[in-house]
């Protein structure tokens, strides 16, 4: 609405004496909207629909904050954790989830578990691995207590990544991913939100890091099939990206470029270009088109954006480090350092132009 119309409507609402009840009903509506979308949030249409209501969702969270509606806030923040993760809204998500968890400790155990898992993901992304591990252990205990095996499977997937990236224990991470996959497949064969595709994609990355490209390709292809059955557009892009990196590591540039372009077009359709994961697909596409210089500038742009937002650098993250090494190998350490610094100085709009250049 026009701001003047909004102000007039608010005045009339306050005169009616029904403001509190209508704001509560609005919050209830937003909770139902978010919970209905949560399981399929990695689908492009669902993600877009939630993004359109982002203003409403923030208004509902603001109404619930301060202990006014602790259970509604817990439900809403828990349901939005996947949406925040996909957009790299780590700080915003952490802020809402942290308050929701602190104030909502009398809410249903299954909702507490979802909120704790979401808070753990935000906390890890902001660099506090120790607290993230504590939160995940607590969420896992609650999921098991209420018999939610779907939640257990997702928690195991998150724990596997933490064990891998913070402890470097590939064997333990592999076992956790395999347990997560087995549980998910028992629940429903690639049902919406089952998490099968995500865990398979993560397991493929571990195979890539180990240098077992054949196993990585097999797992990535299985993830791609699962993601398409689930109508999980984000995981489709991730599986294509994984296959493209494997092709590039084996010097199959044309195959890598074709797969990377498919992945990037999906990301652009989803509207998730702001995340580091998504921008890394554009890095891959530049590299596979034998343009490692622009690829390196784009790495610098992503790192610069994260630094401006106060986020921890991800360059040494084992998920990315092997891929970064590919660029360094192609252009040399000194040139890599220079170009990365050039990229870090770019505005985000200029970085997006580099993405567009990869598709030109």
Percent of sequence in beta strands = under 5%
Separation of termini?
A: 38 Å
Q: Structural class from helices and strands?
A: mainly alpha
CA-atom Rg in angstroms: 21 Å
**Low-pLDDT ranges:** none
What global shape is seen?
globular
Number of strands: 0
Order of helices and strands: HHHHHHHHHHHHHHHHHHH
Q: In the residues, how many domains can be counted?
A: 3
> How does the major sheet shape up?
none
Provide a descriptive summary of the structure in words:
This protein is an all-alpha fold and 360 residues long. It has 3 domains: 19-31 and 53-129; 148-187 and 194-231, Alpha Horseshoe (Serine Threonine Protein Phosphatase 5, Tetratricopeptide repeat), CATH 1.25.40.10; 246-360, no CATH class. Helices cover 81% and strands 0% of the residues. It contains 19 helices and no strands. It has helices at residues 3-16, 19-38, 44-52, 54-64, 70-86, 90-103, 109-125, 129-146, 149-167, 170-187, 196-210, 213-230, 233-249, 253-270, 276-288, 292-308, 318-331, 333-344, 348-359. Helix 13 (233-249) packs parallel to helix 15 and helix 17 crosses helix 18. It is globular and about 70 Å long. The two termini are 38 Å apart. The mean pLDDT is 90.
